[in-house]
Specification:
This protein is an alpha/beta fold. It is 40% helix and 27% strand. The radius of gyration is 27 Å and the shape is elongated. α6 packs antiparallel against α7 and α7 packs antiparallel against α8.
Length: 407
């Protein structure tokens, strides 16, 4: 006796018992389910079941009974016979490479999704699934912090990943949306460590610039800071020059600055969620330990590596203690923490905005340029420029319902 293969597509108003009722019909005829998938948008169901069944009387009867059950449940059923050749061709596609494309922004317009999927289509890649990661959006209530994200699971072969992702970067700039591209590997689903730059990443300021303002050398220090972040001058040299300009600043000023640090939107939501799911967190900063330790207590950060100010008789000397935490050091500390925690480097994430963050961004399993300078954004694996730090969670595939368990 031969075998028939059918794909049944069910659509209509969702209600309890639909899947149970339909699969019970298949069970009564001894059918094998080869694949099943279900989506629900605005209480409207789309259910697909691919099944095989013995040819002949059973095959004809099961289709008739499925139609009757669908009518009884108030939904529509459409059947499509699948040849064995086409089925085996579909099965063989599962060996193809898999990737995740995440789109996020304050809002998602049809044009943004259209342009992203056009690039995917041009490369003959299949979209296996599309998942909304953010909660439902009210059209009558104003959101204090609007954000929208969807995740596309795609499959196929990509010859030149750099050229492929560069097209996403172009769309990102033109349409004001963030697009992240990742391999859908075991490491992506098992990230364990997130390392943050501090200034202009965890906090929305450059502390050394604030200290400079209070020391009366703001313009000079800001110019050096900007040149360093853009990668125009060596970070170590810029750090020494800025430190000298802070000589004589009172230690009392530091506490006041620390207490008023502007924490980046979404930072607490992100770190609370990470800890809830067992992640380790670290600050790797070219700034100062004084402020890093303040944030460590406030946000419950596991590790802090930064520069230590030299203070004598209550005043900054213009010098520092120990090695300068530059780009090389940040990358070293990332590896050191991962080794200490028994975490593979591919399970790590690094988040930063400046040129001195690029080494750790490119070393980590996932490097994210956060509201970064153009040079950094162009050379990082992924970027977030449209929403707050909790956007990192969407790149990890978390849905708002997973995140809001923490609140």
């Amino acid at each position: 006796m031969g075998t028939d293969i059918f794909l049944v597509n069910i659509s209509g108003q969702d209600k309890p018992g639909l899947t149970s009722g339909l699969t019970s019909v298949l069970a009564a005829y001894g059918a094998d389910v080869l694949d099943i998938g279900q989506a629900n948008i605005h209480d409207t169901l789309s259910l697909g079941i691919l099944f095989k069944i013995e040819s002949g009387e059973k095959s004809a009867a099961v289709l008739k009974d499925l139609l009757f059950k669908a009518y009884e449940l108030g939904v529509k059923a459409k059947f499509k016979p699948i040849s064995l050749k086409d089925y085996e061709k579909w099965v063989n596609l599962q060996g193809k490479d898999r990737y995740i494309v995440t789109i996020l922004g304050e809002r998602l317009a049809a044009e943004q999704i259209s342009e992203v999927t056009k690039i995917i289509s041009e490369k003959n890649l299949n979209i296996d699934s599309i998942t909304r990661l953010t909660g439902r959006i009210s059209l009558t209530q104003k959101q204090d912090y609007p954000r929208a994200s969807i995740q596309l699971s795609i499959r196929g072969h990509i010859d030149d990943k750099t050229a492929f992702t560069s097209k996403f970067m172009q769309i990102s700039k033109e349409l004001d949306v963030d697009i992240a591209f990742q391999e859908d590997s075991i490491f992506r689903r098992n990230r364990r460590l997130v390392c943050f730059d501090m200034d202009s990443t965890l906090i929305q300021t450059e502390v050394i610039d604030e200290l400079a303002e209070l020391a009366g050398v703001g313009a000079e220090v800001r110019a050096i800071t900007e040149a360093a972040m853009q990668g125009e001058i060596d970070f170590n040299e810029s750090f020494k020059r800025r430190m000298k300009l802070l000589k004589g600043l009172s230690e009392d000023v530091l506490e006041n600055v620390a207490e008023n640090l502007p924490i980046t939107k979404g930072a607490k939501r992100l770190i609370d969620t990470l800890h809830n799911y067992g992640f380790k967190t670290a600050i790797l900063s070219g700034g100062f330990t004084y402020f890093g330790h303040y944030l460590q207590k406030k946000l419950d950060i596991d590790y802090v590596y930064a520069n230590q100010l030299e203070i004598k008789d209550g005043f900054l000397t213009g010098n520092y203690i120990g090695d300068i935490v530059d780009g090389n050091k940040k990358a070293e500390y990332l590896k050191e923490i991962a080794k200490k925690e028994g975490i593979d480097i591919n399970q790590t994430i690094a988040v930063g905005d400046g040129a001195n963050d690029l080494q750790m961004l490119n070393l980590a399993g996932l490097g994210i340029a956060f509201h970064a300078k153009p040079k950094v954004k162009d050379n990082a694996q992924s970027s977030i420029s449209s929403i707050g730090l909790d956007g990192v969670l969407y790149l990890l595939g978390y849905h708002d319902r997973h995140i809001d368990l923490v609140d």
